[in-house]
Amino acid sequence: MTSVTQIPVRNVLVVGILLMLAGDFMFALNDAMGKWLVASFSVGQVVLIRSIGAFVVLGPMLARQGSAKLFHMERRDLQFLRVLAMTLDTMLFYAAVVYLPLADVMSFYMAGPIYVAALSHLLLGEKVGWRRWTAILVGFCGVLIMLKPSSSAFSLPSIFALVGSLSFAFGIVLNRRLRGTSDTSLVTWQTVGTLVAGGVLTIGTWQTPTAFDVGAMALLGIVSCVAHLLITRALKLAPASTLAPLHYTLLLWAIVFGLIFFGDVPGPRILIGAGVVVLAGLFIFHRQNTVATVPPENVPKGVS
């Protein structure tokens, strides 16, 4: 009898893990597609059409939820800050991949959990012990290795990636303060933010795309939304502490896609720095799982 009841639980866990892996793959695919598109079109134009495409997925979800819930929000000031942070994250990510290899940009975003841990202590008053503070400092050292501090160190694309990853982490921390808002509402307002920003940045930079190009940019938004949904479902089926380390497969996919589609090979500095960041992030997840249950919001979402 015991074994019979345990089998479904084990199966559910496996499904959660598979959905998480699929979601991360979709995010990596989204990032690779974005890098390919911003090589021919402005960041604003790509983000604008991408945001419109996202409503192919969001539309039915909004119809099911109803408009009343969309406009009835908790803490409008924090909602605005979150939209601003996530919009900045998206715009800077695509701006960075115009100039940097995909794996290089993704390496900066792998520090997201480290930033989240630090910001949670500073902004939310969450207790962070000395072990996690040590891991946070080690993780920052990994970021510095990737930035290569020198007279010419902080190149503009690297700054884009760094500030984008910090904006991403700030948005994730705000998610914790807005738990009463539905995922559909959060993603919708986030998409509206990127839609507006993309529209503004498109002024004076619009290039008439072919039907294929429009379809590719719209597909970008669909892929991103599907990835969000897969990871959200995975977190409902398996513990966040089990799924969190799987998110680092994004870096692996970034290296693979970068090599296959763009011929990019990450240098030893990026690989070493990324390795330090990943190890520090995994330790933080381990400590959070040891001292308390890891909140789902601590799992880094897709960067773009």
Automatic annotation (TrEMBL):
Record keywords, A-Z: Membrane, Transmembrane, Transmembrane helix
Keyword presence, Transmembrane helix: yes
Query: Which branch of life, at top level?
Result: Bacteria
- Where, by residue number, does the polypeptide cross the bilayer? 12-30, 36-59, 80-100, 106-123, 130-147, 153-174, 186-206, 212-231, 243-262, 268-285
Q: Which residues form a coiled coil?
A: none
Annotated EamA domain residues: 16-147, 159-284
The reply to whether Transmembrane figures as a keyword in the UniProt entry is: yes
User: PANTHER family, per this entry?
Assistant: ACYL-MALONYL CONDENSING ENZYME-RELATED (PTHR22911), BLR4310 PROTEIN (PTHR22911:SF135)
* Protein name in the entry: DMT family transporter
- Organism of origin is Aquamicrobium soli
Q: What is the lineage of its organism?
A: Bacteria, Pseudomonadati, Pseudomonadota, Alphaproteobacteria, Hyphomicrobiales
